[in-house]
Amino acid sequence: MDDLRHLWNTDTVWLNTAQYGVLPATTRAALAEYLDSCAAGTGDPARWGRTTGEARRRLGALLGVPGGDVALGAAASQLLGTVAASLPGSARVVVPEGEFASVLFPFQARGVRVRTVPLGRLAEAVGEGCEAVAFSVVHPGTGAVAPVAEVVAAARGAGALVVGDATQAAGWLPLDASGFDVLVGAAYKWLMTPRGLGYAYLAPAVQERMGVVPGAGPAAAADPVDLFADRFVPAAGARRFDTSPNWVAHTAAVASLEVLLGAGVDRVHAHNVGLADRFRARLGWGPGGSAIVSVEVPGAHERLAAAGVVTTVRAGRTRLSFHLYNTEEDVDRAAEALV
């Protein structure tokens, strides 16, 4: 990624993208222009509104689906809550044990029956009968990549909805969202966008099943600029599930997604996993196939911090996450702090 390295200049070795991504210089410039225009009173809401459409289109390109099937909201959990609300109260949903709260809580709050099973048994549990299966494509704590193909095959055989959370996957793991019924995510990690943008691929059949979003506002209407319409006419496609547009986050997303799409997710995947596996090898481990590595080494978080390496502790283990702005030198610095 030498051709992109000029876009970042951090004061730390940032191995913490699984918590939040570092903004590229181009994204920072786009945000500065937005803020300057707000401060000067020269901003153009119509122009800002166009960033919403462009962010949607680029998210669709990243996920391999039409932009018209992508809804934009504030957070992955908020969008999952809308999906959960469309399920009957008697529905049964299967999730992996130890699943992230943003995946689990929306279904529990809906009051449906939620069953948890080990990740390795997820496909088997779907086959035993349920209305939906929900899981993180990449686990935010361990970095484990879910057996998506097996789960999807089991769900198709059982007639269950496949609901995935791509928050820790989209941006480095090649994805085809069309294999899911629902695929949600938050953009402030691997997509390197300020917090406040959630997205959801909603398969056309799911859009019909869900009807319209409760509490719909102008953003969900067929004509979003008719602010005094006396009748709600929903937008075509997934946009009818949009919440009020976050111009700041959409402006940033357009710029950051340009970097990711320009680099190519396959290339980002090879870079990130290559760095993670280099780190694992330095610790005497085999390849992991993930951009996230979880280590249980006494004092690891503190030892890494002393070396200027930023990480996070999750479930008692130190989590390192590698993205396109990291280098082999970063990996070696982290490994030397632990070996």
From TrEMBL:
Residues 111-283 form the Aminotransferase class V domain. SUPFAM superfamilies: PLP-dependent transferases (SSF53383). GO terms for molecular function: transaminase activity. Keywords: Aminotransferase, Transferase. Gene3D superfamilies: Aspartate Aminotransferase, domain 1, Type I PLP-dependent aspartate aminotransferase-like (Major domain). InterPro entries: Aminotrans_V_dom (IPR000192), PyrdxlP-dep_Trfase (IPR015424), PyrdxlP-dep_Trfase_major (IPR015421), PyrdxlP-dep_Trfase_small (IPR015422). Signal peptide: none annotated. It comes from the Bacteria. This is Aminotransferase class V-fold PLP-dependent enzyme. It comes from Nocardiopsis changdeensis. The lineage of its organism: Bacteria, Bacillati, Actinomycetota, Actinomycetes, Streptosporangiales.
